[in-house]
Amino acid sequence: MNSELQNLHLIDLISERHVLLRRICEKSWNDSSDIHISNSEWYIMARIYNKKTTLSYVTKHVDISRQATHKFVKNLEAKGLIEITNSINNNRDKCLQLTPLGEECYEINLSQKAAIEQTLCEKIGTDKVEILKDMLKLEWDI
Q1: Residue 11 is assigned to a structural domain of this protein
Q2: Which residues pair with 96 in a beta bridge?
Q3: 70 lies in a domain?
Q4: Which of 102, 116, 115 is closest to 47 using CA atoms?
């Protein structure tokens, strides 16, 4: 067992494992693609995947500053991963939608994450992974 993790409290343990998994996901993607996509950009793409939504919705539902969200959205557009159009109902808002390339990248990334999860199942056991997922899905009421 990793000795550095032994004395950490729950919140720090979750944070450490989250950072590790994000790093593994990012490396998996970057090793297989010429399109660099940051963790923040993946986070935004997850909010857009399989729907047409607005920039204001995404800004409200990601834990990233408004200015940074706008910057990441512009980066995603420049990479050809999302399409930005004017909103019909509100001239000041923009509609966001993944392009076919964006959807393809997102779906490949989902497959890569599933492979990482499978590796985790092999390391610690499928039953433990399922228990962990179930616990994280619970309503904590805190």
Answers
A1: yes
A2: 53, 84
A3: yes
A4: 102
Separation CA 81–CA 100 (nearest Å): 8
Q: What is the CATH number of the domain that holds 72?
A: 1.10.10.10
**Whose CA is closest to 94, among 80, 123, 74, 112?**
74
What digits encode the pLDDT tens for the residues 22-74? 999 999 999 999 999 999 999 999 999 999 899 999 999 998 999 999 999 99
Rounded distance between C-alpha atoms, residue 57 and residue 94, angstroms = 10
pTM to 2 decimal places: 0.86
Structural domains counted in the chain: 1
**Domain interval for residue 97:** 3-137
* C-alpha distances in Å from residue 34, one per residue of 27, 66, 77, 105, 118: 12, 28, 16, 11, 25
Residues 9 and 24: their CA atoms lie apart, in Å, by 23
Is residue 142 in some structural domain?
no
In the chain, the amino acid numbered 84 is I
Give CA–CA dist 82/100, Å, rounded: 9
